[in-house]
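Final report, Chapter 2: Outcomes

The project's central promise was a pipeline that accepts a single protein chain and returns its three-dimensional structure in a standardized token representation, suitable for archiving and comparison. That pipeline is now operational. To close this chapter, we reproduce one record exactly as it appears in the project archive, with the input sequence first and the structure output second.
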Amino acid sequence: MPRSTLHRAKRIVVKVGTGTLTDRTGRFDRENCARLAAELAEISKGRRVVLVSSGAVALGAERLGLARSKGRPWDIPTKQAAAAAGQPHLMAAWGDALRRHGKVTAQVLLTAEDLASRKRFLNARRTFEKLLDAGAVPVVNENDTVAVEEIKVGDNDTLAGLVAGCVEANLVVMLTDVEGLYDRNPAEPGARLVRDVPRVTAEIERIAGGAGSDRSVGGMATKVRAARRLAAQGVTTALLSGRRPRALAALLAGEQLGTVFAPGAHHLSSRKGWLAAAAKSRGVIVVDAGARRAVVEQGRSLLPSGVRSVQGQFRVGDPVDIAAETGRPFARGLAGYGAEEIRRIAGLKTSEIERVLGYKYLDEIVHRNDLVVLDVGRE
């Protein structure tokens, strides 16, 4: 979706970062929240808009009188306590601000586990649809109060990408505390804003850098990674300054501001988009070079003859990563056999499966209809 056609986007996820919702002292910026609410209400005319909002921890710290010492990060229980105290006030802030413009808000709290389960993912989708049908603005945040490392999304940039897949958005806008992606640290002399990114390459990821501020979880790197995953699903991503007045409306009018990441040429189906972005792998199937070529270059299923080993424990139908003998996972799919069964038939021909197991579900370890190739071979 080129800049000139962004006005056609009918389903938009807007992510507002902590740096946009807090002032220089770290206190919640109600004035900017109110301004953004007016702009969200404006762009929602004729569109369906979902808001992913940070700020609960900052608001909770303010309410509880918690101070963050530089260089001494809070422990997890302190962060969860701050999130618990701040979440209702965050919802109240957005609810009050959007109500002035005739919009109703609805709170949606998610964890990675909610989106990793296909059943719960579809339940969430149905809930979003009902809310959007009713004209509401769902306000999404991670359920930090209960989330532990095993079920955390980790940052709201990634969460925005997962929500986009859930609501089938065609545009994700990330409002941040800078104008967009720069070719170097924006504080350095001569730093240039990168206006358009046709494809996220290793070089783009390198210039994105690392961590965010001491009040936020994500940084530019997490935004670029989210944009790369969204591109594979056919979704355009835009990075804009959350401090620039009417930036959202200007973007949709085709103005040259911020950074726009183009969607990929080949779009994943909704099911495969979920598998690539949201599904949580339960194990790893390690394959040889021939099997990798068959899956990546020829679009074939994974057969037992190409399997070399299995890591972890999983059951039939569980999401699993597929990796080469040296290297990171290059594909993900739904297992046609359990981990122990695959260990027994690894390296065999399909005609030998029944002789070894005493039965045969499928010829394939992972069928191509249940398999998605991840981003491989980036420059």
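Archive annotation: Residues 3-273 form a domain with the Carbamate kinase fold (CATH 3.40.1160.10).
This record, like all others produced under the grant, will remain available to the consortium after the project formally closes.
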